[in-house]
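Hello,

Our lab assistant flagged a job as stuck in the queue for most of the afternoon. It eventually completed. Since we weren't sure the result was trustworthy after the delay, we are filing this so someone can double-check. Below is the sequence as submitted and the structure that was eventually returned. Let us know if re-running is recommended.
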Amino acid sequence: LPIVSYYEIGTNLTANHAHAAMMGVYGMLAAWMVFVTLLPSGILQLYHSVDVGYYDARTLTYIGNRTNTLLEWLRLPGDVLFIAGGVAPLLWVAIQGVLHHGRHEGLPEDDELHLFTEIEHLEPAEASAAGTLTDGS
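-- returned structure --
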C-alpha cells in the first residue's frame, strides 16, 4: 500500500528487500542476514516509524539501540559461514602453491616442450580411406 511505502522507504525493510532480491537473483541467497537481522529490525523500525514518527525511526539513537545492536550481532554466524566459503578455496590454492613450489625444476627446456603437435599436410592420395598414412610404396 502507498501509505506503508511512505513509512517503509529508507528503513531496514528496504535493505532487506534489496539484499534478498539481489542475492536471490544471483543464486547466493544470504538467508541468514535477510531473515535474522534485516527483516526483524525492519519490522521493528517500521512499527516505530508509524508509532512515533519517520524521522525518529531514522535517527542514530534508534538505530543504535540495544535491540538493533543485538540483531546486528546475530548476523555474525551467517557472515562467518559466507566468508569462510569464499576464503577456503583461496586458502587451498595458496597452500597448494606453497607445497608444490619448485616442482618445475628438472623439466625439459622450453625448446623441448611442445604444447601442440605439428601435423604435416598430406595430399589426398597419400592417406588411405581408413585414416592411416601410406608409405608411398
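-- support follow-up --
The delay was a queue issue, not a problem with the job. The result is valid. The mean pLDDT is 78. Residues 76-99 form the longest helix (24 residues).
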